[in-house]
Automatic annotation (TrEMBL), chain A:
This is Clp R domain-containing protein. It comes from Hevea brasiliensis (Para rubber tree). Residues 8-173 form the Clp R domain. CDD domains: RecA-like_ClpB_Hsp104-like. The keyword Repeat applies. The keyword Transcription applies. It comes from the Eukaryota. Pfam families: AAA_2, AAA_lid_SMAX1, Clp_N, NBD_SMAX1. Belongs to the ClpA/ClpB family. The lineage of its organism: Eukaryota, Viridiplantae, Streptophyta, Embryophyta, Tracheophyta. Keywords: Repeat, Transcription, Transcription regulation.
Automatic annotation (TrEMBL), chain B:
Belongs to the AB hydrolase superfamily. It comes from Hevea brasiliensis. This is AB hydrolase-1 domain-containing protein. Residues 21-257 form the AB hydrolase-1 domain. It comes from the Eukaryota. InterPro entries: AB_hydrolase_1 (IPR000073), AB_hydrolase_fold (IPR029058).
Length: 1105, 266
């Protein structure tokens, strides 16, 4: 998307914006669709005295006259512009993406390079510091980066890098005594070790040739006096290239240490010799003698003997005699002239070498080949050259961009401008300014630290207008001091404000604000719930504007725990107090209240869900919510300020309007007003305890009646925690409660969690449910359980870690129940965060931000229990396991009628039968279970059932059952493989920390199943009478049990049987009134999902016939 | 001397473990790419993070077009960093180009590395006879032309392609870091990468490697992982990630981290 001109102009200084306007004008004149960098260049050149023109003039290096070259340049630009397609355009051709990218780059560049002076200016003016206006100079530099522009300049005989240099360096009046281009780039001399940073490397930096990189490395290795084996796909190329270089160049490529080294290749001789099968030993001997002679003669660095491609030596067709003869000759030579002779060869793959070694194990020691990996065929430069001569003009020389006088930046400014946050930078600058005032040197030379003095001189020459001598004297000490300051502040910044070293300027600022926000989260939330009239967002904005310094924020954090126990003594008039210490106290106080507030109304849900009433109507005062306030409110509970409610509210709103720093105070006041109203009946903790306990227990029992023991334990734990007992976290009182449900009954756990959310936080909306075992996995979409959306997290998971998801939800709903299923499957990150949360009360997300978990109830579930807890007091092996039920599919049901199979009817007067296609352990399950059923009969029945199914054919797949169920049982038992090694210890530690570990009994599905069968039997007899037999498919059974387990109402499944199934039976009876004996079957339509769901239960609303 | 390099390449050490882990980012990203992997390891490892010299977060002036013509210069940087930090043994996780850098570094200093984990690694991107690297020379030239013509358009097209999986946040992040690179440097580095060929030297790597390959990676075909496994000199394993894209640490950190942990503990 092209950018609008007006938008782009915002990023530019006036000067640069004028250029942009000109460029737009050029584009419009030529009726181009977009304004590109080329247009900008054209506009720049059109100005008679532009920076660019000036820079071009100075960087000109060709022999022809400047007028001519400018003419050529203008022509080239013109031609390139002509090539652009023209179209009907608007008044202002928008800015092309590439030009916009250039502007953004220059912005970044300028930020990186900007000296402190600029930064200071920005800060002093308190402008929006984030919009850094791009200066013309930087704008031009970025435009020159654009490949198209470089090409155009290249065509005209300019090198864009030269022009860039000229742009950076304004004309120097008196000649500087160093040549820019010849100085090595900083990286070589300053940043790395001596080996790499040889500034006067003997390799000529101009006239680079093909594969020079490889040659250089080979030469370097030779300097070390090693025998070389070049290894890599392009190794032989590199070897040949090197030989060529050395021999044609007269050794010019070699470093001085080994200059004059001669290189002899015996590759041809070797191949010849070996191909003849080693018959011609004399010739080889002769060659070796010749070499020996040469070696004796030679002085200086010696001789390198290339044996060429190693592959020639390992060819399997070779006679081993010839090869070993050759090898021994070479070895002999090498031994004879240890100092003078070096071997060199190449091979494409390592395997060749190892094969060679396999044949001549002694070689490794005798030849002592040093392997030099060759990894690239050509240097990238070469590619540019080969592809387009134009490209060559811009890229390879881009590196020259980093020339000496430009080098000050990397050494100091990177670290400084990036790692410090806004505030610290500002403070740092203040100090610097103060320091500079003391000395006579101006700010301008701050950034010349670390530079050799001659570079400083150059820097100053370039127009800073400072006396050179002075800088030389004062500069160094001053710079050292400034650097010290810089370090100090950036250290400080990192430590205190936790700025990420690489986070950008505005980012870290945003972070800091976020931290402040967190600190005031309590206030924010409280306000939301107490006033109910202001949206949370607006509040956040308010506190963002808060004039609180970060320091205060830090204090707040520290003070919270300490001041928690301070009784509240501030009376309601304190809103006028705005000194900091008070603020802190207030804030901590409000936090504490906040923490307690959810607890004092467990019995009066309506009030919790309608918090606005608290402030607007005084009738609330009569509510008997006296719970959990403890001593904290005792001191203020008697304050008769209820009538002032309206007043406070006014204050409160008023403050919101203009001074949000007082917000905390006014907020806590209005809050305080509510408190007494609800505290009218202070009572002892014990009293509260028992009532609380009973209410929770009663509510839970209604929903999840089968888990009586667990409910008992849960209610006890909650009431205990709320009363402030039972915490094992030191002296500080925390509002969060941690429960762990172990054992079976997934649905029961979920229901209880949901109920807790409803009882304690007013609505089951306040339940955050995350299943930790689902990470990365796929949830079967056809499950019965899917239709209830059990796992919020799964849906919104994409692209988020589970920790971040939880953190997000926590901050959204600071008062809620967080249900974490399968906590034993938590990934490492989640483990960390959870553990931190349970120990410190703060839940960190993956970015390290912490969300307070005060007021939260954490419910973690796990199917495995820890330690010696015997959580499976199984009376008997259950017929239906939880896993079977969880695997229930949400399929349409169907009634089939077919002729009775032999002997299947009327057995023992039972008319309902479940056909079970499960494994051998469980089989036929009839109503009024005959405990004596023996195995053979089961088998028989099982088979008997199969037959009719086959007849039906269409809806059943007989191949599946056995394996499938086996799979089920396997996955059912907690697979400990997936649990990483320290996960178990973590789980143990974690369970040790929670407030209560509650054991859940397995749900008795068999009993439920029997109940359901009984109900169905009644319905069936109503429709068909007692002489017919009903067979219920096992899958249908499981589906019904699952649905019943899930349903919120207690009699949901009974209702369904009566309404839906009963109707189905009646319809079926009407359809088939044959007198022939038949069997009625209730089966699933495999693969056909329920489309129309019955109310209140996950079962179909009608049965197919 | 050393500290300057550490500063220039933004070297950071985080975490408090005894074992040392180096996380090296690949082409087009910077160390922030590891941000979402980090928390999984900070407890048990001291993690060294640094930026390749070509990364956008490094001052482009450090990029010496004469020096960084092959991967060896990057290897020098890595080894210099490790030496400056006085690391005597570490595990190394390298993504794309850094995986290759890690391989080369381990050849030069095998004692320094206890384990290499290679994410989206390829010894050679170009096809050859008997080798499928995924790219034809002509394709690559087209890509380069596209980069030259309009860098931004190229980035906008390339980022989603590379990320692969449909994770907008990762695409955004990758485009951001790609944009941070100066176009000419990007072009130059990609030429360096595409010209390098490590096939011959894989046998020299004696450090055990773990190759992490996603199920679909536009830059690295699955056969390459197999090629690496068979040719690497140390014992190596291949881990298949059930996600798509070249940047699993950006697009699927929760999936990648456990695999990394497992690989590191072996």
């Amino acid at each position: 998307m092209p950018t609008l001109v007006s938008l782009a102009r915002q990023f530019l200084t006036d000067e640069a914006a004028r250029v942009l306007d000109d460029a737009v004008a050029v584009a419009r004149r030529r009726s181009h669709a977009q304004t590109t960098s080329l247009h900008a260049v054209s506009a720049l050149l059109a100005l008679p005295s532009s920076i660019l023109r000036d820079a071009c003039a100075r960087s000109r290096n060709s022999a022809c006259s400047s007028r001519l070259q400018f003419g050529a340049l203008e022509l080239c630009v013109g031609v390139s512009l002509d090539r652009l397609p023209s179209s009907k355009t608007a008044d202002e051709p928008p800015i092309s993406n590439s030009l916009m990218a250039a502007i953004k780059r220059s912005q970044a560049n300028q930020r990186r390079h900007s000296d402190n002076f600029q930064l200071q200016q920005i800060h002093c003016n308190q402008q929006a510091a984030s919009v850094l206006k791009v200066e013309l100079k930087h704008f031009i530099l970025s435009i020159m980066d654009d490949p198209i522009v470089s090409r155009v300049f290249g065509e005209a005989g300019f090198r864009s890098c030269d022009i860039k240099l000229a742009v950076i360096h304004p004309p120097v009046t008196h000649a500087s005594n160093f040549s820019r281009t010849r100085c090595p780039p900083v990286f070589l001399c300053n940043l790395t070790g001596s080996e790499l940073g040889r500034p006067d490397s003997s390799f000529p930096s101009s006239g680079r040739e093909d594969g020079e990189e490889n040659c250089r490395r080979i030469a370097e290795a030779l300097v070390k006096g090693k025998n070389l084996l070049l290894l890599g796909a392009c190794a032989s190329d590199a070897l040949n290239r090197f030989i060529e270089c050395v021999n044609t160049d007269g050794g010019g490529i070699l470093p001085t240490e080994i200059a004059g080294l001669s290189l002899i290749s015996v590759e041809k001789e070797i191949i010849e010799f070996l191909s003849e099968g080693g018959n011609n030993r004399e010739k080889m001997d002769f060659k070796v003698e010749e070499l020996r002679h040469k070696l004796e003669q030679c002085s200086g660095p010696g001789i390198v003997l290339s044996f060429g491609e190693l592959k020639a030596l390992v060819d399997e067709k070779l006679s081993s005699g010839a090869l070993s003869y050759l090898v021994s000759k070479l070895t002999g030579l090498l031994e004879g002239f240890k100092d003078k002779l070096r071997l060199m060869g190449a091979t494409a793959v390592y395997e060749t070498y190892s094969k060679f070694l396999g044949e001549f194990p002694a070689i490794e020691k005798d030849w002592d080949l040093h392997i030099l990996p060759i990894t690239s065929s050509k240097s990238p430069i070469d590619c540019f050259g080969s592809k387009s001569s134009l490209m060559g003009s811009f890229v390879p020389f881009g590196g020259f961009f980093s020339t000496p006088s430009d080098l000050k930046y990397p050494l100091c400014n990177v670290a400084q401008s990036i790692t410090q946050c806004h505030l610290c930078t500002a403070k740092y600058e203040q100090e610097v300014t103060a320091m500079l005032k003391g000395s006579t040197v101006s700010i301008a030379d701050q950034y010349s630290e670390n530079l050799p003095s001659w570079l400083q001189m150059a820097q100053l020459d370039t127009g800073k207008g400072l006396d050179v001598a002075k800088t030389k004297n004062d500069g160094t000490t001053l710079n050292a001091r400034i650097l010290g300051l810089q370090r100090k502040w950036s250290d400080f910044c990192q430590r205190i404000h936790r700025a990420q070293p690489f986070s950008k300027f505005d980012v870290s600022q945003g972070r800091a604000q976020a931290l402040v926000l967190e600190g005031f989260q309590y206030v924010a939330d409280r306000k939301e719930s107490s006033s109910g009239s202001c949206s949370r967002d607006s509040l956040l904005n308010e506190s963002q504007c808060a004039n609180l310094s970060l320091g205060v924020h830090m204090d707040l954090q520290n003070d919270f725990p300490k001041r928690n126990s301070i009784p509240i003594t501030v009376d309601s008039e304190t809103e006028n107090v705005n000194c900091q210490s008070k603020l802190i106290k207030e804030a901590s106080k409000s936090q504490q209240k906040e923490k307690d507030s959810p607890w004092f109304t467990p019995l009066t849900l309506p009030n919790m869900s309608l918090p606005a009433d608290h402030t607007s109507s005084s009738s609330v005062t009569s509510v008997t919510t006296d719970l959990g306030l403890g001593t904290i409110f005792a001191s203020c509970s008697r304050r008769p300020n209820t009538p002032k409610l309206g007043d406070h509210r006014e204050h409160y709103q008023h403050f919101l309007g203009f001074n949000s720093s007082k917000f905390g105070i006014s907020e806590s006041n209005s809050h305080q007003v509510i408190q007494p109203s609800s505290c009218s009946n202070p009572s002892s903790g014990e009293h509260f305890d028992s009532r609380d306990y009973k209410s929770i227990k009663k509510a839970l029992n209604e929903k999840v009646g089968w888990q009586e023991d667990a409910i008992c334990a849960i209610s006890q734990a909650i009431s205990r925690c709320k009363a402030g007992y039972g915490r094992h976290r030191g002296s500080t009182v925390r509002g969060d409660i941690w429960l762990t449900f172990v054992g079976h009954d997934k649905v029961g756990k979920k229901k209880i969690a949901s109920m807790l959310a409803e009882i304690i936080f007013g609505s089951h909306e306040n339940l955050i449910s995350v299943d930790l075992s689902f990470q990365g996995g796929v949830n079967p979409s056809d499950s019965v359980f899917e239709c209830q959306e059990l796992n919020d997290y799964d849906v919104k998971f994409r692209g988020k870690t589970v920790v971040d998801y939880i953190a997000m939800e926590l901050s959204k709903k600071p008062q809620s129940v967080l249900l974490l299923e399968n906590v034993d499957k938590a990934d490492f990150l989640a483990q960390n965060s959870l553990f931190q949360a349970v120990t410190t009360g703060k839940f960190p997300d993956s970015h390290g931000r912490e969300i307070s978990t005060n007021n939260m109830i954490f419910v973690t579930t796990s199917t495995i229990g820890m330690g010696n807890t015997n959580f499976q007091p199984l009376k008997e092996p259950v017929k239906l396991s939880e896993e079977d039920i969880l695997g229930a599919k949400n399929w349409q049901m169907q009634i089939l009628i077919e002729h009775a199979a032999e002997g299947a009817s009327g057995s023992n007067g039972r008319n309902v039968k479940i056909s079970r296609k499960v494994t051998s352990t469980t089989s036929v399950n009839k109503r009024k279970l005959e405990g004596t059923t023996n195995f053979t009969e089961q088998e028989l029945n099982y088979k008997a059932k199969k037959l009719p199914h086959k007849v039906l054919g269409s809806s059943l797949d007989l191949n599946l059952p056995v394996e499938e169920t086996e799979d089920n049982t396997n996955s059912g038992c907690c697979d400990s493989d997936s649990i990483s090694e320290n996960s178990e210890t973590w789980l143990e530690d974690f369970f040790d920390q929670v407030d209560e570990k509650v054991l859940f009994k397995p749900f008795d599905f068999d009993a439920l199943g029997e109940k359901i069968v009984m109900e169905i039997s009644i319905q069936f007899q109503k429709a068909f009478g007692s002489e017919f037999l009903l067979e219920i498919d096992d899958e249908v059974m499981v589906q019904m049990i699952a649905a019943s387990w899930l349903s919120a109402r207690s009699r949901a499944v009974e209702d369904w049987i009566e309404r839906v199934l009963g109707r189905g039976f009646t319809e079926a009876r009407q359809k088939y009134h044959s007198n022939v004996k038949y069997v009625v079957k209730l089966v699933t339509c495999r693969g056909l999902f329920v489309e129309d769901q019955a109310a209140g239960i996950c079962l179909p609303s009608r049965i197919n016939l | 001397m050393g500290t300057n390099l550490l500063e220039a390449l933004n070297v950071r050490v985080v975490g408090s473990g005894e074992k040392i882990l180096v996380l090296a980012h690949g082409f087009g990203t910077d160390q922030s790419a590891w941000q979402r992997i980090l928390p999984f390891f900070t407890q048990n490892y001291s993690i060294i993070l640094y930026d390749l010299v070509c990364a956008g977060s490094v001052n482009p002036d450090h990029f010496d077009f004469e020096r960084y013509t092959s991967l060896h210069a990057y290897v020098d940087d890595l080894l210099n960093i490790l030496d400056a930090l006085r690391v005597d043994r570490c595990s190394y996780v390298g993504h794309s180009v850094s995986a290759m850098v890690g391989l080369l570094a381990s050849i030069r200093r095998p004692e320094l590395f206890s384990k290499l984990i290679l994410i989206g690694a390829s010894p050679r991107f170009l096809n050859d006879k008997d080798y499928h690297g995924g790219f034809e020379r002509a394709d690559i030239e087209n890509v380069f032309v596209a980069m030259e013509a309009n860098y931004e358009a190229w980035v906008n097209g390339f980022a989603p392609l590379a990320v692969g999986a449909d994770v907008p946040a990762a695409v955004r992040e990758f485009s951001r870091t790609l944009f941070n690179m100066r176009p000419d440097i990007t072009l130059f580095v990609s030429r360096t990468v595409f010209n390098s060929d490590l096939r011959g030297i894989l046998g020299l790597v004696k450090v055990p490697c773990c190759i992490i390959q996603t199920s679909k990676d536009v830059s690295v075909p699955a056969s390459v992982a197999e090629y690496l496994k068979t040719h690497l000199g140390g014992g190596s394993t291949v881990e298949l990630l059930r996600t798509e894209g070249h940047l699993p640490h950006l697009s699927a950190p929760a999936l990648l981290a456990p695999v990394l942990r497992r690989a590191l503990s072996r």
